[in-house]
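Recall the central idea of this unit: under ordinary conditions, the amino acid sequence of a chain determines the structure it adopts. In this exercise we apply that idea directly, starting from the sequence alone.
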Amino acid sequence: MSESTLLSPSLITPDTISSVDPWERYQRPFVRDLAYALASPPVLNTWVDHQPLINTPTVTMHSAEFWQQQFASYQDRLALLDTTKAYRDLTRFLMNRPSPYRLGFHFEGLLHFWLSDGFAQGCHPYEVLAYNVQLYRDKQTIGELDYVLRNHDTGEVEHWELAIKFFLGSAPYNYADWVGMNSRDNLERKMTHMQSKQFRTVRVDIDDHDSVKIDKRIAVIKGRFFYPYTDPSFTRPSWLAPNLPLHAWYNGNDLAQLATIDMSQLRRAHYVEWFTKRSFYDKHRHIIEWSEDSPPESGLYFEGDRPLVIYRPKVLVD
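Accordingly, the structure predicted from this sequence is:
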């Protein structure tokens, strides 16, 4: 990217970065992550079917108000987890799951703990009937369902499919233009996969319940989205949830962009900090320097408390 007009993030999205996120009140890292998993808004206003010619059942999404209600109902329990030995229960639960340090599995583990623990505590009506339910075709595994729940308020069986995504946006900012760091994943592709694979399931076989009919399908998609710092045409897409925080991403090949970052406050984030910042790492901040011959690595950084992404697009050479 060539030199261009550098815009302040506040000029692009003045109302999208909260200074007092509710998970910031907690001290223990996994409690902060759990609070983030609950209190953070969904990515989308509503579900969109990107392949309308495929005959699939209706998919819905919980509103931001739903998640705020769940967070409020669970706050007393979060306080206990944060201040007592009950934290060990959360830690053991997460560490005993497969691949606990992968972001997607960590998100699943956090919500699984809340589903199981919250139901036992009477904080919500969702009983886990099964999770990671394997799907087969001709004796071959073709996928799995994240969670099959019974909603005791309605009596319905609900299938929840989860995703946590950290996407970088580019013009024209349609669903397919929000892309993962590896460039192989984007929002439209993820939604299409959910719609055409997991959400086509009508019945599932569950231990002790025989065959269970699914009454409702719910997509739970959360995460952090990053807009390009230098795009003066950026307008927040109408389909994004209005209270989803947006952060900036910087082109790591453009030294003019990088020069606008306060280097004295910058540090590279640890992998798990895509969820919530671990402030204790600030004490071990290393001085970061770069040049044309030694550009920065792509990844998540913190400028003080502000999250940002530095991404180095591949430069095509004729």
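The first strand starts at residue 59 and ends at 60.
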